[in-house]
Design goal:
The protein is mostly helical. 36% of the residues lie in helices and 2% in strands.
């Protein structure tokens, strides 16, 4: 991915030096020394609830990788994200939480402190005899509603 980005930026006249690192060295550089301009790093979350990633979104979070190690938000928009994330923690309904988190995503799209590069292409299937089969976009893809899956009664054909 870094090589593809490097080639694309070269076509725009930008020189980018890619420094491949062993994973632990990369994490140390990003979280400890902070000696980097940009980094290609996979942050994965398998939870649809934004609260599982507060450490990324809040400006004082441990994996808040832009303007790291903040005691106070470095920018106005980061302060706004902090406020929205705190509000959604206490919102009484799903609809209110979603509206607040949608606003967070709009801010992220505008300022792009992270650029989301890939999304997995998941293929799930089951035999026609499995009832209530509805694959999800997050893990577990096919067993999230295991209590509601059932085997359909198949019509029996007469035999001689």
């Amino acid at each position: 991915m870094a090589a593809i980005i490097q080639d694309d930026l070269k076509e725009l006249g930008m020189h980018v030096q890619v420094v491949p690192l062993e994973f632990r060295s990369l994490i140390d550089r990003v979280t400890q020394t902070k000696e980097y301009d940009a980094c290609v790093l996979g942050l994965a979350s398998f939870d649809a609830d934004a609260n599982s990633d507060l450490n990324v979104w809040l400006s004082n979070g441990g994996t808040h990788l832009w303007n790291p190690s903040q005691t106070h938000p470095a920018t106005r928009w980061e302060a706004e994200i902090d406020g929205l994330m705190e509000q959604q923690l206490a919102a009484p309904s799903f609809e209110q939480r979603k509206k607040l988190y949608d606003h967070v995503q709009q801010i992220l799209a505008e300022y792009q402190p992270m650029i989301f590069l890939t999304s997995p292409n998941i293929l799930a299937g089951a035999k026609n005899g499995i009832g209530n089969f509805h694959p999800a976009v997050l893990e577990p893809y096919v067993l999230w509603n295991v209590e509601q899956l059932y085997l359909r009664n198949e019509p029996r054909t007469a035999s001689r």
